[in-house]
Amino acid sequence: MYGRKGYQLVKDFASGEKGHLKPFNSKLFDETIEECDQNHHLIQSLIRKMQQEGLEVHNNRNADHYGALVHHLSLIRNKRCLMAYVHNRADIVRDLAWRVGLEILDLPPDIQENLSALEKEYFKNHSVAIKSYMGKVGIELNVDMVPPKDPYIKIRVVGDIDQGILMSDKTTDFPRHSMHFLKRTDAEPYISRGQMEELTETLSQSVMMNDGCVTVCRHNRADIVRDLAWRVGLEILDLPPDIQENLSALEKEYFKNHSVAIKSYMGKVGIELNVDMVPPKDPYIKIRVVGDIDQGILMSDKTTDFPVTLCISSNELMLNLTFLGGKWRN
Amino acid sequence: MASKYYDIDDILTEEEFAPVLFHKPANRVTIDPSAETNYVEQGAKVELPFWLAHELHLRQAVSINLPASFDQKTRLEIQADAACVDLRSRCPYFYEFGCKLQPLVTDRTLGILLSTAFKIRYKERLTKVFTATHLTASKFLPFLTIEETNLYEAAHLSMTAFKKWRTGGPRFQRASILGRKRKES
User: What are the residue boundaries of the GINS subunit domain, all occurrences included (chain A) (predicted)?
Assistant: First the structure.
């Protein structure tokens, strides 16, 4: 009595984790409505009693009036609890549509269980409204708002995905625990639903040029591939073979495209940008050859052979050999 | 006030009990546990939930007294060391409830009590959340009221978001609305 059931209903909602839905408590819901009915009966009987005694209901403030008032207030209170329960659940349902997916079957089954039939109806109608709005505006609004650094992302499949899914550029199977290199836009809906997870492994073990020269502190593979292009060389065959092995076919493609972009940019600017930024004291340096270099290399002023342990001085050599030579010293 | 109609915290705050003194009798109402019939006498002292007490007060049927959570014992404890008082066991919505009570009760010092308690507790406890480890933090978390817990969680969230931004974690996450991940058998 007096708002107890409504209170229990609200408490049931609040006891779940914030922002998560518990199963729709239709038992308590119905009990609250029953309590409202009881209050309503008592109000009516008290008002009838007052009318039978011939008293004006509004003006006369006797005991019956206050009794009716208390019941009326309890009824209003239960109504408020019922409304708040449904309203807050509807908030969460709308949130689900925006964040997870617009199809009700995309939701994990345990969440689908927690929704009542009316809430599923609400979800469908809201999804339809969102879709028509996005269609008119012309942009997809429920994707990540931050522009990404890289259009591709590495993911691992953790949930069950059907086979033969059509991505924007290919058709692939997604067995469990397999890793793929996908476009961000393709992977995003699966990640929101928890079926894939993004991999951000550091490559410091696999791509370590030289502990002193290049320490890798980035996490994204594409970052490192671009780094390679800038720091080592613009031709993919210039990279040490074990690094070439570590790159996937897509990454080699990415390296080539990035090198082409760098070359055209440097051509337009008119300066070589991937050389040492510090102005040297002396145009010539003395070097020792430590790795295998083909014979008959063309330098800027002569053609030479580079047998190992020969000492020559030249400016251009410094760049290539500092990095590559460091690698092969290992 | 319309925006608070659906607010769950507001509903739960108003459910807290406050002792009232009835000025008018009420019939067919079984609120008073000491009465045998379903009738509340004039001059009866009853504990009512705040929502009921507030409305009856507006119609001048009752007058509200201070609940036990705000009595002299609590005041002395707050004066001694506000940071260590277990406010949640006394009243989980200590500040909100106190704010609602303040215009209705004849006690003038309630407002000052609330603001000093909050200031001291904020300064001592909540500002330390950025540097506290999980172990030290979990010791005093049960003492915080719901409002303070909300502040704590907000600070914690922003701290983890900042750390994630620093180290560059994955941008895409499983939607938090889906709940905790369970290991599928």
Answer: 47-137
Both structure tokens of B142: 């049960």
| Residue A176 sits at the chain B interface (C-beta within 8 Å) | no
**Confidence at residue A85, expressed as pLDDT on a 0 to 100 scale:** 92
Task: Examine residue A87 and state whether it is found in any structural domain, yes or no.
Answer: no
Identify the pLDDT of residue A84.
Answer: 92
Three-class secondary structure of residue A286 per DSSP: strand
The structure tokens 């009738």 sit at: B39
On whether residue A82 sits in a domain, the answer given is no
Q: Give the domain-ending residue among A162, A182, A201.
A: A201
Lowest mean pLDDT among A204-213, B2-11, B55-64: A204-213
Q: Which domain holds residue A309?
A: 284-329
As beta bridge partners, residue A171 has: A166
Q: How many domains does chain A have?
A: 2
For A79, the enclosing helix (H) or strand (E) is helix A63-99
Contact in structure between B43 and B82 (CB atoms under 8 Å): no
pLDDT at B61 over 80: yes
Cβ-based contacts of A198 with chain B (< 8 Å): 170-172
Instruction: Give the ranges where A1-57 is alpha helix by DSSP (H).
Output: 4-15, 26-52
- Of all residues in chain A, the percent with pLDDT exceeding 70 is 73
Does some domain include residue A324? yes
For residue A219, is it within any domain?
Answer: no
Cα angle at B98 between B125 and A4, to 5 degrees?
A: 110
Instruction: Give the residue from chain B lying closest to A93, CA to CA.
Output: B177
pLDDT tens track for A8-30:
999 888 888 877 888 888 898 99
pLDDT number for residue A90: 92
> Taking Cα atoms as reference points, which of B22, B36, B34, B58 lies closest to residue A63?
B22
Distance CA A180, CA A192 (A): 17
Q: Which residues of B touch A45 (CB under 8 A)?
A: 28
When scoring A12, A66, A74 by the number of chain B Cβ atoms within 10 A, the one with the most, hence best to mutate, is A66
B110 near B70, Cβ under 8 Å? yes
Q: How many other C-beta atoms lie within 10 A of the C-beta of residue A215?
A: 10
Average pLDDT over chain B, rounded to an integer: 80
| pLDDT at residue A82 in the model | 92
- ipTM, 2 decimals? 0.85
Which strands make up the sheet holding B17-22, listed edge to edge?
Answer: B45-49, B17-22, B62-64
What pLDDT score was predicted for residue A323? 39
- Give the span between the Cα atoms of B121 and B81, in whole angstroms: 9
How many C-beta atoms lie closer than 10 Å to residue A201's C-beta? 12
CATH of the domain at A177: 3.40.5
Is residue B126 within 8 Å of B151, Cβ to Cβ? yes
Query: Shortest CA distance to B117 belongs to which of B137, B147, B142, B155?
Result: B147
Residues of chain A contacting residue B157, judged by C-beta atoms under 8 Å apart? none
On the question of pLDDT at A254 being above 60, the answer is: yes
